[in-house]
Amino acid sequence: MNLKYQLSILKKYLKSIFPEFIINYFTQGNERSLKTKKNIAASVIIKGLNIAISLLLVPLTINYINPTKYGVWLTLSSVIGWFGFFDIGFGNGLRNRFAEALAKGKHELARIYVSTTYAILSIIIGVVLVIFIFINPFLNWAIIINTPSTMTTELSLLAMIVFVFFSVQFVLQLITTIITANQQPAKSAFLYLLGNIFSLIVIFILTKSTSGNLLYLGIALSSAPVLVLALSSLWFYGHSYKNYAPSFKYVRFKFARDLMSLGVKFFGLQIAVILLYQTSNIIISQLFGPEQVTPYNIAFKYFSIITMVYSIILTPFWSAFTEAYTKKDLNWIRLSMKKLKSIWLLLIGAIILMILFSNTFYFLWVGNTVHVPMSITIVMALYVMINLWNAIYSTFLNGVGHIKFQLVAGLIGALVNIPLSIYLGKTIGISGVILSTAILGLPGFIFYPMQYHKIIHFKAKGIWS
Predict the structure, then answer these.
(1) According to the model, what pLDDT value does residue 329 have?
(2) Where in the chain are the domains?
């Protein structure tokens, strides 16, 4: 029985289940568009489960420890996460260079990029880990997170455990970068789902076998993604990605410059993103105490439902834009951007509904354990609206490697964000910290579309290029 006959049988079977227009949507059209559609469809199911598990993890974790310790965990883990910028942009540089190499059929070059990135990041994080081991005993985490001094020893040990797991994950997560660069983000999302499932199971076991222990929680949530990434790396590099498996034989440090020429810009952008979007936990903890990080995070995770939905749609487009721009398929880019903007308008309606039903959702989700003021909900919704619009254009700009303006705007915003967050936080409250980030997203809301039009019409020069 040949492949063509098998496909015809499959198509007839699918037609008996689904309407013909759905079958045609996934089987007819541009090859790049079909690949994107299939990944989006698969990601809807996978990330839908991810959203559900993420929502379940919040009340389970809060009930295992308590809202204050949960805020401590969120703040500590976000601070450790800042060390992710030590990849100096190599991860995103690899994503673009790998996609370009595949588009040009240069498979050996793709493997060189992969092997070289693994080698460089292993060296970088190895050095950082050694430094952290030496300085951690001198860091007063109780002051950093604004907790009682009695937690100093516990937090120091927790920070070390989390950082060790983070360091391993730092290198292993490159497999998700490579899979996504090959326009298969659904597979990458599936790995994240497995990590979440593992975390949910372990924390559920902890709730039945131990009393609230911050160290156990840290080990559970930090080890889950490491285990999943290690096993998946062995699987993918032994099968479908065997031709791109990292090898000492293919390490070429001279190609670091090629990766860095783009990666160093992403590095600057990563620093800006950290200072803009990942400092809120520690600012809130310092201004209002770690217990107030929890209501902030509840609202953040609530609207992350919309963010994750949109990321399902956007993620395949990064590498698709890279391929389309490399092949000068500008018409496909224009049509894709038009569709993405239409989806953004639909999501605005969904966000408004989420505001109206937020209090009901919070109660059903976490009960009376945590109170989330409506002011936090409304400002968080505004932040998400602006961020989603900017994400459309940043996905395109990242894909084509034109990120200089993003870098400059991001770094300026990053420098302003912390003092503005502190000022608005003291003036308005927790919602002021969120409002700062929303305000600093407005320049991108205006100028990113301008840059896109300049690029697509070959008029981008200077900072726009």
Answers:
(1) 86
(2) 30-464
From the list 198, 379, 187, 384, the residue with the least C-alpha distance to 295 is 379
Mean pLDDT calculated for residue range 24-50: 64
- pLDDT digits over 151-185, tens only? 888 889 988 998 899 889 888 988 988 888 887 77
Burial zone of 13 (CB within 10 Å; 0-12 exposed, 13-18 middle, 19+ buried): exposed
pLDDT at site 18: 46
What tens digit of pLDDT does each residue of 290-341 get? 888 889 889 988 998 898 888 878 877 877 888 888 888 888 889 989 999 9
